[in-house]
Amino acid sequence: MKPSQFALASFAFALLGAVFQAYAGDVVMIVNKANDSADKATIIKIYSGEAKSWPNGESAAAFDLPEDNPSRAAFAGEVMGKNLSNMKALWAQNVFTGKAVPPKKLGSDDEVKKAVAAAKGAVGYIKAGSADDTVKVVSH
């Protein structure tokens, strides 16, 4: 590889990494405004099938974005510490063993936000720029 090709390839990888990093940090976890017991640890348990309710006893209802949505990959990596394949395998095992039902898939940030705003025990994730005062953002 010529030095100019190497420099171009290095620049492309650095740019791609910067774009991914900028976008990956742009996902937020959201819950219903009335939820007073939401935290990152509980959300991880809900999205891994280990918990079906919040610490206050309220039943949890989790929502996912489509598999091709970049926010889903960001949530899996940033919050869950897994990639999409790991999450898919986890839920396949949960369903197979009867341990848990996977989060309901919705088509967009707006659909997730509306579903979370409508149900006290709901949880989801969306792009940070999509969050508004209809839901509560949980910090991570």
Which tags fit this structure?
140 residues; alpha/beta; D-Maltodextrin-Binding Protein, domain 2
CATH class categorisation: Alpha Beta
Q: How many E-type strands?
A: 5
Largest sheet: 5 strands, mixed
Structural class, please?
alpha/beta
Which fold name fills CATH's third level, the topology? D-Maltodextrin-Binding Protein, domain 2
Considering DSSP H and I runs of 4 or more, what fraction of the residues is helical?
A: 40-55%
Query: Roughly how many Å is the radius of gyration?
Result: 17 Å
Individual helix count: 5
- List the domain count as a whole number: 1
Order of strands in the sheet with most strands: 3-2-4-1-5
Shape: globular
Low-confidence spans: pLDDT under 50, at least 5 residues? 6-24
CATH architecture designation: 3-Layer(aba) Sandwich
> Could you state the order of secondary-structure elements as H and E?
HEHEHHEHEE
- What is the fourth-level CATH superfamily? Periplasmic binding protein-like II
